[in-house]
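Per reviewer request, we include the raw input and output of the structure prediction for the construct analysed in the revised manuscript.
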Amino acid sequence: LWIYWRSLLLALATTLICLLLGFPVAHFIAQQPSAALRNLLLFLVTLLLVGLSVVMVYSASAVRAANRLEAVPEYFLYRQLLWAVIGFSAMLFTMRVDYHVYKRPAVLWSLLAVTTLLLITVLFMPERNGARRWIAISFITVQPSEIAKIVAILFTAAVLERRQLRDDRRLESL
């Protein structure tokens, strides 16, 4: 029982720290004159948040992994670390690509088409836990709605930027 309370207190403390420090840190980063320094600070803040989330997952799931799954207590920690490494690898790859590439119509429409096909494909996949939301590829399961969120952000940003450039009025273009 103490472990559950400890996990809850740790989650509340982490949330409170993020709320109290989030705005001053964001303001500090925005005030930096160098774009390279701003990027480095954003990367370090991202690394800190991912590290905290990995600790939180371990804190919340160690007992469950040991008792219910009859696995090592660090089972979910290792899985979370694996996905954190994959996510950071994807982030580093994405950072290396010039951001102008993402607003090209060919890229946007291709991403939109692939995402739409994935969202339609999921309708014909077998049920998992009473829902058809996942596409299973070998040992990896993909939820197309997560990909759709990223594509929607890119598409909306490109549309708003084109409207802003056309109208040359920032506030009214939104």
